[in-house]
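Adenine phosphoribosyltransferase
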Amino acid sequence: MTLDQIKALVRTVHDFPAPGIQFRDVTTLISHGEGLAAAVRHLSERAAASGAAMIAGMEARGFIFGAAVAAQLGLGFIPVRKPGKLPVPTIGVDYALEYGRDRLEIDPGAIRPGERVVIIDDLIATGGTALAATELLRQAGADVSHALFVIDLPDLHGADRLRGAGLTVDALLSYPGH
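Predicted structure tokens:
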């Protein structure tokens, strides 16, 4: 399946969550077996080319794509969780959202120092969550140099922010506008 065919499976919801926003909904892609498999295959090829030893995905849709890529490549998966979800001692990082703050946590024992970890998520918008995940994984000793996404919203400059933090950024699909 081509990237254009995958793009046709992503639904656009107008005026969600606020007027003027065009929400790019991957639910329709995830529910399409062939489309999901193709997206995972494309992401897997890029993750393998980056030399990934492990895959990290941010809660929640990053779990879907990241875990599938990890399984396809035979690699381990690191869940980057919201606070209070892991049953072991964690390390965490607070980060800014458009309207407030949030926190991400990981089990630092899931990472061996120097291990090459590739971040995968469904969408890159402003880059706040991906930057926080990168900081957290690096704090745990990971070598994080690549971030992969299904969708990039380039007008929000998140990929540029990640590049400024020393990451190579790649996305399967790009949608101009918000």
